[in-house]
Design a protein that fits this description.
Layout lengths: L1 H21 L6 H15 L6 E2 L2 E2 L6 H13 L3 H25 L4 H12 L2 H7 L5 H20 L3 H22 L2 H16 L3 H4 L4 H21 L3 H15 L6 H12 L3 H8 L4 H9 L1 H18 L5 H22 L2 H36 L7 H28 L8 H4 L4 H9 L3 H7 L2 H13 L6 E4 L1 H11 L5 E3 L6 H9 L6 E2 L1 H8 L8 E6 L8 H5 L2 E4 L3 E6 L11
Parallel strand pairs: 3-4, 3-6, 4-5
Antiparallel strand pairs: 1-2, 6-8, 7-8
Helix pairs in contact: 1-4, 1-5, 1-21, 2-3, 2-24, 3-4, 4-5, 4-6, 4-7, 5-17, 7-8, 7-9, 7-17, 8-9, 8-11, 9-16, 13-17, 14-17, 14-18, 16-17, 18-19, 19-21, 23-24
Amino acid sequence: MKKTLCIFLFLAAALYLTPAFFRPLAAPEEFRYAEMAREMLVGGNYVTPTLLGGRLFEMPPMASWLTAASFNIFGFNGFAARFFSLAGALGSALLLYLWGRRQTLSQASSCNSAFLYLSSTVIVAAGSMAAPEMIWGFFLTGALVSFGIAAESRSPAERFFFLAGAGIAMGCGFLTKGFLGFALPLLAVCTWLLSGKRWKEFLYLPWLPLAAALLVAAPWALAIHKAEPDFWHQFAIYGEWRRFTTVASFPYWLRLALLAAGLFPGIFPVLAGVFHLSPEAWREFRQSQTVRLSFCFLALPVLLLLLPWGDPVSCLYACIAPAAMLGALLLDKADSNKLFASLRKNTTVFACLFILAGAAVLLSELLYLLGGTGIVSVLPLKVAVWAPFLTTAALGMVVSGTILFVNRKSKLPEPESFFTLFPIVAAVCVVFFPGFTAHSKLPEYELLDIASQLSAEKIRHPRLLAAPELMHAAAWSFKDNTVQIINTPDELEYGHRYALSRGERPLMLTYEQISALVNNSGRKEGILLLMRKDNLYKLPEKLLTTGKTFSTAGAISAIYYPGKEDKKTEK
């Protein structure tokens, strides 16, 4: 137990806590959801989802509610924005562990479900991001576990309690991601009941949770209908129907790659267990009600994931929890002696590969530094950009591989020990970014530097204009929800049209409107325009020559002073 707890804490710290604490927010997703929650908390409107002060009716508000509560406790920072994603990942792993113990699985087998879930690549990526996917994944896992316990319970009171819990999870899932929160668990349970010919249970088991889910969702659903009568039309037609019927940009091979990434690295010990199942153990595994329920919860999102339309990312996160439970149940049936021997061999092989690959990268960098440049003309820039990332990743691979290789003959063959091979490298990958990625995805420090330059220019509270790729980050960094978008409303097209129809401040200004605003001699407010350097060609040259420009590594800003006080461009 002590060793298992240490491995769990190591996984949690390396893969989730460290990135959540130290990594800046990434654009645009993290800034978008953080800013929506900030506006909700500051404005006090917990019914209508808004972004940059405009109505955004593409998703319900549960993620914003939870993030706003986190901001109220921890303040406006990256950790607070990610707190409930982190809690969702660890909470889902805990639910899977408790479900395993409820089925009288051994402690090791119950832990395997949690480790399979926590080590999944897509869960690692989302568990330290300020996005609703992990919150939604937690509610889906809660529905799966509650249905599983209710189906096995012989006590009517206990069954009612867990069915109500499944309904609450479904209702919260709807409030997080929309109709999939209802559809996926309900269809999975109905499929499981019909395939098992459990006709009597079909009459009540799915419908009590559905009623509970409707009760959970009803207060907000009625409140948003009263406050915004056009919400449901906009949400159902443009937010849900088009999202799940439009042909996606994800090609088929990428969908398969996403699914493979979702099962990595846990697929290796599970495959090892498949080869060490006796015919009798395989028969018991297939006849298990938990296996059938988990398979039904897995099959539907996998099917939706592989279809050429829809939302593959949401479906991917719905796959991991049932897949982790199936993997743990399979490992529980495998021959332990043969499985442990196979895992010891696999762990040794992977440890050696990690050591060799990491050492090769470090040696290549050393030879490059000693031998100089000249192989390829563009190589120096690429190496300079990637060097910090490659060095830390390579060191992580060498350290992780060495730990496993040194301890390969100790009591390390248990499946959960296999996962200690990957956390160091995975943590490096989610914490460190190469330079060009940092400029495009982590703009917060650059924007704060621009804010300090504004202070030096003695310009307070300027009118902010930002390109679509920087609008979320600008609103969050300047704590200003009045940012206006340059030339295209992007995801706020409906909010922009609504604002124009009501005579409110527009969310978007065209280049012509910006030029007229800048050249207005009676203007009494300063203007700050923000764009990415790589999109600078889209901006009319006259706008850059009439303001004072500041340049950072990835962004460029132009300051327009009030009235006729504009200064010439500073090179």
